[in-house]
């Protein structure tokens, strides 16, 4: 069954698909469609909140976060679109830092001059979240367990306060306040970014004019809570994790890599794993039947992806992100549906029924609750073979709907 | 949002559902429907194969396996139905070992006097697989890494040969040969049991008269291969696993418990996790927002289920089972579809579209391939909220179809 020809065909197919991000579940991707990348070079900036108080009542001195923007803030400061990022994402939503960057920001296909989120018209801004996964990625600026407590000079570790999606929103609001921006033309984000978008609209209905949640629902349900627990298990099992106290020693990279393998697979769809890899072996001549270290190709690919991503990530940050997502329901602190009912801004929901993390039913239920008191809700379904990840790599399919929604 | 009433209602719902096996993904269950349990007490027996040669060419001296049967073998020895078990299952398919057993075997709802698999007519036999997960369960008799090599007197550990689903079939054939049984009226199994059923029909088309694969497809595809890798990751990360060499020390129970949590969740469906647990807290007064050890109820339930199951299981056996499942495609050793095309016996495929481990598309594709050369294939879809697990707990829905299929 493993003829050289089918192997070659599979490798060609794999190579083609590796040009979109196998290496991470929800990662920066090459732009799709005919449009060029957002043209001006992007400059990462940073904001420091001198004292940030969490929803849980704890304080974080010198909360510093990275941000970037595309387009120009108008004089009225009313042309602002906030992009909130996903679990393993960053504020790099569009454009390139240098002309020879291998790839632009993850949603470059829809953000730029003349694109659906038109930077000739809008000032688009994106912010690295606190406890950002990619804390060791040089383009990420964040504050979390791996960063230094300004008073002790040592990493916070697990003494860092637990944060919620609402806290993420408050950091973004602090930045916008510093920039003198009091209203958002729209807030849009994918996956964990959609949770921030719901939270913005639920918490500040007077500041948010439009909401575009992509591949996400209005609360973390029991199933997602359980999966997020299981995502973190490999980290907790790695002896190098040491209860989160590893900054003076060896970081738990094996556990983190396994956790990222799981996220990668969970964010995909069987059509991808079967179509690209099938039952191909990782190494010709090393039959997986002959040893536990003889792998199938998809096992080796996930190993590589997990290890590559782990190199710029932090295990404690991963666990803090899992916790923030588990704790989420729109309108933090009220009844389960109160936040969704508080949303006044029109909503454009974008999702795919092939999503294993935020299933279509949960998204439709979210839409129905928001709509139940008269708030306009429009739903666009993406097509593709990548599952959850289609919300990143296939977003251009919703380009016309996004353009029209922003123009209304 | 966490009122006492909604908590109470959720607890009642949880208690009701815990009477079916939350504690393991695919475990013995209470019978459903009006029929009583298979009545005569069941006696576990054992068979020893003096020298078993694996498909990989290695030999295992004294392969001893448990088996049990229900009904009476007729004089012609042609009334035999073989039941093959799932990943975390055993040969205890029906009946009770003692009158006060809490629950009968897992498919008791369809096996017994007057039931669809009628023990007044059929001799139903089930065999513990080699490398059975529940090697420390006193009712399981198996041979694998945790059992003693007869020559060294020490556990085999990772020196135990890698086995395939075809090897499992060969152990069952050796038992049937010893009993003088040369033909099967039918072979039926769920999940990993369905793989054995396909393999029986593909390898011995002259010995198998009917096949009933439940919740399984004709090959492990790339997606399942990847998930099986990830199922095993927590074990490999547990320092007590020690490369599989732990029988003289502490077994990797934490890793094994995490692996079993993952299997448990994967074999369920969101309707279950959301319907039973939702966002309820594990402990009143311990808000999950206040600490990493403050859990949601579903996290605590999965922790308990994983730990309980780990106590009677073995980590290396888990990894050998993952490998056997990864290596599976019907007709071991030929082309990918050759085995399915070799099946001559009529096939009754039972599955559910809510299955996350063996999705409906894969099952339908399997059926289409078998049918393509004229072999009769009938498909029954189960309804339910338990996903993959409905193939065990809701099998009675297919009772009439099974009865009719066996009578044809």
TrEMBL record, chains A, B:
Question: Which named protein is this?
Answer: Probable acyltransferase
Which keywords belong to this entry? Answer: Acyltransferase, Amino-acid biosynthesis, Cytoplasm, Signal, Transferase
- UniProt cross-references to NCBIfam families, sorted A to Z: PRK06765.1
Which branch of life, at top level?
Bacteria
Family under the similarity heading: Belongs to the AB hydrolase superfamily. MetX family.
Query: Main location per UniProt?
Result: cytoplasm
Gene Ontology, cellular component aspect? cytoplasm
EC no. given is 2.3.1.-
């Amino acid at each position: 069954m493993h003829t050289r020809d089918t192997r070659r065909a599979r490798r060609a197919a794999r190579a083609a698909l590796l040009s979109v991000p196998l290496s991470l579940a929800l990662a920066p991707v090459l732009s799709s469609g005919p449009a060029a990348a957002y043209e001006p070079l992007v400059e990462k900036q940073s904001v420091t909140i001198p004292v940030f108080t969490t929803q849980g009542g704890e304080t974080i001195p010198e909360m510093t976060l990275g941000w970037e923007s595309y387009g120009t803030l108008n004089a009225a400061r009313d042309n602002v679109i906030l992009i909130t990022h996903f679990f393993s994402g960053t504020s790099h939503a569009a454009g390139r830092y240098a002309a020879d960057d291998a790839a632009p920001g993850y949603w470059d296909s829809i953000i730029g001059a003349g694109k659906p989120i038109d930077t000739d018209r809008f000032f688009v801004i994106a912010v690295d979240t606190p406890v950002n996964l990619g804390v060791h990625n040089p383009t990420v600026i964040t504050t979390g367990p791996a960063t230094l407590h300004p008073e002790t000079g040592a990493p916070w570790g697990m003494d860092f306060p637990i944060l919620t999606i609402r806290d993420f929103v408050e950091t973004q609001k602090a930045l916008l306040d510093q920039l003198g921006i009091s209203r958002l033309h729209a807030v849009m984000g994918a996956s964990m970014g959609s949770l921030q978008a719901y939270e913005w609209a639920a918490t500040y209905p007077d500041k948010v004019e439009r909401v575009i949640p992509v591949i996400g629902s209005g609360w973390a349900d029991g199933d997602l809570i359980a999966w997020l627990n299981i995502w973190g298990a490999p980290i907790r099992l790695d002896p190098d994790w040491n209860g989160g106290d590893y900054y003076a020693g060896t970081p738990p990279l094996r556990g983190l890599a396994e956790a990222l393998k799981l996220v990668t697979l969970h964010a995909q769809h069987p059509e991808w794993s079967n179509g690209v890899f099938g039952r191909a072996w990782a190494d010709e001549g090393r039959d997986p039947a002959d040893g536990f270290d003889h792998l199938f190709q998809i096992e080796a690919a996930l190993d590589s992806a997990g290890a590559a991503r782990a190199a710029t990530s932090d295990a404690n940050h991963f666990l803090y992100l899992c916790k923030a997502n588990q704790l989420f329901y729109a309108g933090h602190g009220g009844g389960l549906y109160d936040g969704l009912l508080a949303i006044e801004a029109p909503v454009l929901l974008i999702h795919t029924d092939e999503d294993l993390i935020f299933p279509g039913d949960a998204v439709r239920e979210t839409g129905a609750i928001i709509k139940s008191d008269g708030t306009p809700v429009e739903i666009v379904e993406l097509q593709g073979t990548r599952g959850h990840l289609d919300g990143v790599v296939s977003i251009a399919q919703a380009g016309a709907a996004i353009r029209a929604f922003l123009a209304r």
